[in-house]
Amino acid sequence: MPKGLVIIPTYNEAENISEIIPKVLAQSSELDVLIIDDASPDGTGEIVEKMKEHNPRIHLIRREKKMGLGTAYITGFKFALQNNYDYAIEMDADFSHSPDDLPRLIENLEDADLVIGSRYCQGVSVVNWPMRRLLLSFFANLYARKVTGCPIRDLTAGFKAYKREALAGIDLDRIKSDGYGFQIEIDTYIWRRGFKVKEIPIIFVERRAGVSKMSKRIIYQAFFLVLRLGLERLLGKE
């Protein structure tokens, strides 16, 4: 059976982490979990440290400071490649991505290299977001799609499964962006390299505990990143 790694970056997720890990592992005996914790002052790392002592399927990388989502996922992808996992999955710790959807992501890897849990491939599937944030997300995706030429409807999605071939087929060190920008950048590079991308519908539910990591800096970074990707497209660069 193919072996998978679920990568969950954390910063101050003590309210969620002890519950999300068992729910992820319960989805399949072929799944491991890698937590990448950015020195959470609320003790998230310590909670995971204790959990992993009793379960070899739980892995933990503790970083010395808050370094951001993008570098966390790159670290996780490299861990997956180095440890011979067949696929890697990225998801949030806050239950906005349901662990119950993991089997569907994995099943769809049979005929795709990247499977995206999409909020926008069948209308709009978002629960408990204020209208302002929903409009920002929807039009950010429309802007990114038009400028980059990448046909993915939910380019900013953070619930995705990658075959190892897709991760090995791009230059991970080239990706320097964070947050929304990271998601747009890696999707675009995978699509440009000719890998098959598939979107499946999910219901995204706003976090039930903890604090959102959204910031204006992340939004501005994503805006200018899309312009760069659009310029690369015009110049014929991958």
Automatic annotation (TrEMBL):
GO terms for biological process: glycolipid biosynthetic process. One of its GO terms (cellular component) is membrane. GO terms for molecular function: dolichyl-phosphate beta-D-mannosyltransferase activity. Residues 6-167 form the Glycosyltransferase 2-like domain. The keyword Transferase applies. Keywords: Glycosyltransferase, Transferase. InterPro entries: DPM1-like, Glyco_trans_2-like, Nucleotide-diphossugar_trans. Gene3D superfamilies: Spore Coat Polysaccharide Biosynthesis Protein SpsA, Chain A. Belongs to the glycosyltransferase 2 family. This is Polyprenol monophosphomannose synthase.
